[in-house]
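Hey,
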Amino acid sequence: FLLLAVACGFQGMGQAFSSGSIEVLEIESYIKENGEEGIPKISSTLAVLECAGLASGSLCGGFLGYFDPTYTLLLTVCILLEFLLLTLTVLFVKETWEKPMDGTPAVQLKNQIRSLFSSIQHSKIVMTILAMSAMLGLGLCTIETYWQPTLKLYLPEHLSWVFGIINCLGYFGASLGSKGAEQLWKYSHASEETGRSMMGYWSLRLLLPFIILSLGLCRNIFLFIFLFVLTYTVLGAGNLFENTILHASIENSHRSSMLSLSSLSVRSGAILTSVL
């Protein structure tokens, strides 16, 4: 348990670096070239790329875990991929500083936190999204913890390798939802009116718990798989609306910290679910 806790701590640090920083570098570069009208497109593209990686990883992980129940082979592949990722990041991710920052690191951190919370207090949209992120974490943690044990009740033991395929289909659904929401955003002219974009966002987020409830009550394998994929499709669509609205509502100087704060809100929801 202690080793697992340490590993999760390092994983959390890694996710903080990637979720708040790498994505922001891409988005700010794209906004600089195409303006804020391009936020839905770059958000959708990043979401599809991420889902493609998660889908292929789920597929490979499912088969590797099936052929080697000790997970030694799977963990070895994971370690090699981490080293490859680190090497690629060092070689290809270049960060340019707009201007030198004043003060010591401690002062910079203090100013950043003060400025960050000031921007949250003055934006109802950002406050809403952060609160919704915690609720989203509650739902996601429930699905990720219980979907495999639930499906295992109705699935023969020799078919356990299909878990990777089903997980892959879920991420494919998230990609589909993201691209579909990008088109919906474009044709509904959501960027022209805040109320319209928030209405789409609320509709997608409020639909999610009803699908999760249906998933929990489902007793048919094929219907369960369909509802599982539908859950991630609606999740992907909602994420596109959320990311577009959030990025349009924050300044470049707060973008990385705000994404990390949003990620932290999702995890706070997951912690609450675990306690419950």
